[in-house]
């Protein structure tokens, strides 16, 4: 996920800031807000905290906040500093290189790109001092989202209005920063976690999947700009941000949730460990301990992955194979038999795969494959999303096969 530090200064246009935060989050950004003292006259910390889901800061001397994340760490955290609205006063302060409050200090301490969206009365905007400050800021590499012409809060009409949040976000993404979001406009459906197949109201059959790999992939797809829908079995993981989450329990629930949401999906990733078999009978009441032996008859569950890859208009379909033996052989069999675009195979067993923070995988597709050595699942997820995106783009004709930097291992 990309991090945006949103600075809000003391302009009447600050009333648009909560909506700006909402729209940035809807585009997959993580947002932390810093207010100047004057901004607090126009918008509350409470509102911005509620919409950003992060603590809002304004005071450089806040000991508790500094202990959690110092202003230098905050400056480093940002991939981009967006100041919207920016007052005439604040423009002058950054031109001067002042560091007399938290936001000015952050502007000096960050290496991230700074973007300002000035908002002021039209006479102020045309003032020579403001014009000269604007030129200086441009010369220093600060990007300016030009104010618009329109009715102003002072009752006059002219140039100086802050553009609407939607326009600011679009300008930011499409014109100013290459956020490297190659999946913008694409839809990804991903399954994660285990399923639970009930035996009676108390017992169920499940597996050791923790959901960590699927959740990490979902976050990385979101960071790559995709609209993500995660269908998850029961896990202990926190609800992921900025995506649709459907919670399911059984393999049947998962099948239904997937097919209800598969229309228009560009990439389907089946990372869930779906039960291959479920009890034939669900006992309405608890099975009592009586006989020495108890047999539970199982029936095969429908194959979710194959049901998607065999659709008439199938998305780019990525399966997972968790194997204890003959990894490559079984993975390739699954790839071919289920007509998948790609398969991610990993060895499972004690200290491998399931319920671990690290993972090592072999990825195979029609013509080649790639090995990823053991690494944290969060890092691996990033690498896998790059590879899936690359193969997907070649498949749909949005990139050339030569752009691949893949080592052939097949
Ligand atoms: C009601 C009201 C609205 C204001 N709107 C603006 C504005 O849109 N743009 C601006 O540059 N200054 C505006 N100001 C003046 C700033 O709030 C003032 O210059 C302040 O010192 C800015 O502090 P800051 O840059 O640290 O946030 C306004 C002041 C008031 C009282």
**Radius of gyration in whole Å, from Cα?**
26 Å
What would the average pLDDT be, to the nearest integer? 92
Largest sheet: 8 strands, mixed
Low-pLDDT segments, ≥5 res: 401-410
- How does the helix and strand content classify structurally? alpha/beta
CATH class of the largest domain: Alpha Beta
Q: How do the strands of the widest beta sheet line up side by side?
A: 12-11-8-13-16-17-18-19
CATH topology (fold) name of the largest domain:
Rossmann fold
Shape: elongated
Number of domains: 2
Termini separation: 33 Å
- Total number of β-strand segments? 19
Portion in beta strands? 15-25%
Tally of helical segments: 14
Bound molecules: flavin mononucleotide
- The portion of residues assigned to helices is 25-40%
CATH architecture of the largest domain: 3-Layer(aba) Sandwich
CATH superfamily of the largest domain: CoaB-like
Q: Can you offer a commentary on this structure?
A:
The chain has 410 residues and is of the alpha/beta class. It folds into 2 domains: 3-176, Flavin prenyltransferase-like (Rossmann fold, 3-Layer(aba) Sandwich); 187-403, Rossmann fold, CATH 3.40.50. The protein is built from 14 helices and 19 strands. It has helices spanning 17-26, 45-52, 63-68, 71-77, 88-96, 102-109, 122-126, 128-139, 165-176, 212-223, 251-260, 304-309, 327-337, 377-395, and strands at 3-8, 30-35, 80-86, 113-118, 143-144, 148-151, 157-161, 187-192, 197-198, 204-205, 227-232, 244-247, 267-270, 277-279, 298-300, 316-323, 342-347, 358-365, 369-376. The strands form 5 sheets. The protein has an 8-stranded mixed β-sheet, sandwiched between helices. A hairpin with a 5-residue loop joins strand 6 and strand 7 (157-161). Helix 5 crosses helix 8. The longest helix is centred in the C-terminal third of the chain and has 19 residues, at 377-395. It is elongated. 41% of the residues are buried.
